[in-house]
Amino acid sequence: MxxxxxxxxxxxxxxxxxxxxARKGELADAEAALRRFPANLNVDLKAVADGMQERLSExxxxxxxxxxxLGGATDADLSAMQAFDxxxxxIYAFGLPPTKTRSGTPESSAHRALKEWAASxxxxxxxxxxxxxxxxxxxxxxxxxxxxFIGQSESLIVEVRPAGAEPHELQQAxxxxxxxxxxxxxxxxxxxxxxxxxxxxxxxxxxxxSTDRLAEALGVTLIVR
Length: 225
Description:
Blueprint: H1 7-23, H2 30-34, H3 45-59, H4 75-82, H5 86-94, H6 109-120, H7 122-125, E1 132-138, E2 144-150, E3 154-161, H8 167-189, E4 196-203, H9 209-218, E5 221-224
Parallel strand pairs: 3-4, 4-5
Antiparallel strand pairs: 1-2, 2-3
Helix pairs in contact: 1-3, 1-4, 1-5, 8-9
């Protein structure tokens, strides 16, 4: 049974990816964009990008053309995109929350750095050898993992919490991983597959014993960087 998702969900996911690149003044990699979607969707990235931009142009005709980030953007285009208020447009054009973080605060540089470290250090996390790493991988539940390693027969889903995270934030992360593991298993079952799905929480400080116990009970690997 093929997995189907709505066009608006596809557009939201691509919009997130492109606007984050725009805010950093970076060109986006089309292959990296595709890795955010389940492989069995066979996403037509150009069609998604065109639909996303059509929606933007109807509601915000002054918005820069984000499709340029997938190729062809000039330095002037990048500067214009970097200065634009994509957060507000995301709220009103795509119904996205103002931030990704569950605490309601913008993603910190520490969280972003730890997330990118995780995606670049699959060996340290025990990722499948044949896996392709990505940050912010989309799941059919609407969740996005901080990092994910999707292999041919095994997946590793990763959340990160930098130094200073409160015990309740670590607890939320553990249960979020449990949810994404179940969603990934359900996603695979639609193709008649039962690949192993592992989940890991990466932290920068030794957690309290209660967090260790909860992680063990939930089957989540806890790694202190």
